[in-house]
Here is the input.
Amino acid sequence: MAKPVQKILVIKHNDIGEFIHSIGAFSAIRKKHSKASITLLTTKKLAELAALTGFFDKIWVDDIPEFWNISAIISMSKKLSGQKFDMIYDLERSFRSNMYFRIMGRKKPNWSGAIGWCSHPYIPPRRKYMHIVDRNFNQLAAAGIKRVPESDISWLTGDISKFKLPQNFVIIAPGLVKGGEKESDSFAELAEWFAKEGVTPVFIGSRGEKYAVESVIDKCKGAKVINLAGKAGFAEVAEMARGAIVAVGGDSDMMYVAAATYCPTVMILPSNSKSYYKIPFGEYVEIISKQDMQDLDLEEVTDAIDAVLPPETLDSTEKQPKTQQS
Here is the structure.
């Protein structure tokens, strides 16, 4: 008889976009090992969000040592080895997590990851160009988990009453606005356009994006906007997105949260962005790809907004905001 799997480790660091796209994989692992104790190794930034999913019994924070910090990598490897996990799902598939496996000693646990000589190897061709959802699906299939649901963040809810949002509003998340003044001007023009349509632009962003968002708002010519950058966390943004008419923005963590609620979404990315492997997808999502973000045009953005919205959504401010459900 095979030894029952009692202790499992899942490794997933990285950013919020990858994490959200991996929630379906977390769910599949929990369903496969319903009676096991499952620990997640992740970053401090994602630990609180991970705890809210309900899929993990323990959350470990990894300081993510640099690849040259061998002593720290060895220390983490020893910690993992000492726990005697029955199975480790490495959904990070990075050089660092591979090093954890290599240094764990001769008696290694069952391991699903991007190492050819582990118990459940998955090394996809051109993996850097494969979407994270496909990578997770194929990796878990190789480990015997054949069904992976779509990521569902219905559990992520927050109290937004304190923000006193109007009935009709849109979300704008410019991100760090790396495209210079022209890109910043375009987001300001977009906010003004929304205001003329009778809806209130609500700007969001992380604390690190706060000043970039403020630089955009400073350019808004008389348009009434609400600035929640640095004030609304992941849970509040998810709740806002469920009531927003549309969310428009750049490569911002908050855009991945908004899109995961099935809020109509327009994301603007440079054509050379490294984020295409984790972009939101679906009929309610439009991606604008620009070789030069300085060329971002307001009409191009409004056309994309029209493409994801139900007909005549912006024609009347008396209607309730519409969102799409899965």
Remarks:
- The chain has eleven helices and twelve strands.
